[in-house]
Fold DNA 3'-5' helicase.
Amino acid sequence: MDYLKSLNEPQYEGVVNTDGPTMIIAGAGSGKTRVLTYRIAYLMEKKGVDPFNILSLTFTNKAAKEMRDRIEKVVGTDARNLWMGTFHSVFARILRSEADRLGYPSNFTIYDADDAKQLIKSIVKEMNLDDKVYKPNVVLNRISGAKNRLISWREYIKNPIYRADDESNMKPELGRIYKTYSERCFKAGAMDFDDLLFNTNVLFKEHLDVLNKYQQRFHYVMVDEFQDTNISQYLITKKLSAVRQNICVVGDDAQSIYAFRGADIQNILNFEKDYPDLRVIKLEQNYRSTKNIVNAANSIISRNRAQLKKDVWTANDSGTLIELLRATSDNEEGKLVASSIFEEKMQNHLKNSDFAILYRTNSQSRAMEEALRRMNIKYKIVGGLSFYQRKEIKDLMAYLRYSINHNDEQSLRRIINYPKRGIGDSSLDKIIVAANENNIGLWDVLTNISSYMPGRVANAVMDFVTLIKRFKIDIEKKDAFEAANLIAKGSGILKTLYEDKTVEGLSRYENVQELLNAVKEFVDDPDKEDKSLGSFLQEIALITGVDNDKDDDDDKVTMMTIHMAKGLEFKNVYIVGMEEDLFPSQMMLSSRADLEEERRLFYVAITRAEHKLYLSYALSRYRFGRLKNCEPSRFIDEIDPSFIKVSKRHSKVESRPSSEGNGDFAKSFVSGIKRTTSSQPLTRKSNYKAPVDFKPSDTSTLKTGMKVEHPKFGFGKVVEMDESGANRKATVNFDDFGEKTLLLSFAKLRIH
Ligand code: ATP
Ligand code: MG
């Protein structure tokens, strides 16, 4: 019972009080995940609960695996029978066994974001709508938002409140697209990610016997990272635990960073209302980080108005101060970070895997990568373009998917003419139209092709059908690995790639082999109950960015976005690109709520560090193809200055004391930077004062070359207009402040 001794008092309470509703709201690094892990071990070991009756929902599948490994150390291999994973993977599994209730085949396909966007694209085209107005990304986001709030297409079309936003944004056809999209997915026997949750809700609402079955099955339900669940997820957990009420959720409101995907902090507040007997446990001792890091994080988050009160403290050492690194450019920033890692490794005998580089957006990885490569420091990027998103992998996967589910429209699109067999786009479109008009499946059209299409193409289709039928038999008769191998060969994919003798061709060939290796590993894995190809495909479809980390054990520096880093910890952390408009992101400056979400994101980033934290920024950076001057992030100024110091590597830029007479340390070099980094005299010291009667003009006629006035930045000239996106932007070169890009929807500009 050693593990119980490694808990403090409130953690112990959280572990042993297993019955009734419990909510643990606690600061970063205070042991929330640890409590959940040991609670499950305790349930099994001490209370004799069958692992089949325990459901634990985590943020990534990797987190679930780590939890399971820890539990296994306490209770043995029985831990493998626990129900654990992300919401999506657990409920995909349940949907697979109950699919017929919803009219779906049990081998339904899971569409990833790319499949979904392609389908929307073709629907927009078929409807003759403008694809600049109905951009696949935007449409998918709106549909996803509706599904996550459990609004079906029928309700969306019926209720003007749901449509209002889209109608005022000149997208009146969204409802029709939503409807067609849903019908097409259904007909294709496919669900997108949001459907996995949406349909689980439908299943539990409309089939009470099914709900009852799972209520009886799951005696204990647990949710980690509860602050990032959406309404759809909340309702699922609530329903599942409605009978026994043994539900335990853990989370930290200060780390809620997925509002843009529909996560709702209200879930924490509602929880108290929904469960009047709720046991609330607070954990306030941080075990992860030094005092400096914990206190710096507290000083940041205390600026947010919307938060539950917590006093996070630590008994750990003070540690070293947070170091600030300034670079002249993004490339130099990469070099500074790489050489700092190199030196830290040498001096403190650290491994590559003790380091993480965190950034706001994926594109920032490039400069870092180059610098690390030059210094021969091994790294891995978590959550970039994943292995499974590569074309050759998606092509083979499409063959596998299609051989299992003959109505999967997106897979058919990929493979019907790859490798080339003379069935062009227009023939495929005809096939899809025929299926829709006759209200039959795609396969019904294909197997009956001569009634729909003339000779030459029809012959090619018949050959294709024969091929797919053969693959289906292979899948039924052979194990998943043999079947996948036969399909890779039989489809002609291996041959086509092999014949392409370029370097890229070779690497694509190797990637396909690597996918076959993955199937082999899956087949050989004793933990896998269902070794069918269908089950392999489902697992792959549900891999998230963090899970996709193929080389787990290697000693590499980890690079990832802050969103991906949730729940993780590293000895040394570098948060790079600490610049205005980048972090906080320009897109998040329009409301207090958005800015507070960015600040929580910064809080998450800081609290990943155990021993040492670096913040770096560049004075200039290429963004959207242009070199821009950058200003240090306001978040640097927000850290209490007693926890931060300037690094000795700090790029030597001529500096001077703050012109504002403000003793604040970070600010004093903010002003120094500005004067020296541009051909313009960039200084915050400006003689400009906005007139009291300042009135912004209507900027709809704004053009390049116009002279404007801004209440803070004074006079300037418009050097560029960006009319392309949903948000109109103007880049203005201000006399005293240099270039700034402003969102015209809320920048106050007077045209002169
Ligand atoms: P996050 O908010 O980042 O998800 P968390 O609250 O889930 O953090 P854990 O990851 O569970 O925190 O714990 C943080 C670190 O502190 C881990 O390394 C964990 O092993 C350690 N830890 C937690 N509780 C204790 C304890 N009582 N004694 C020693 N170490 C502990
Ligand atoms: Mg955690």
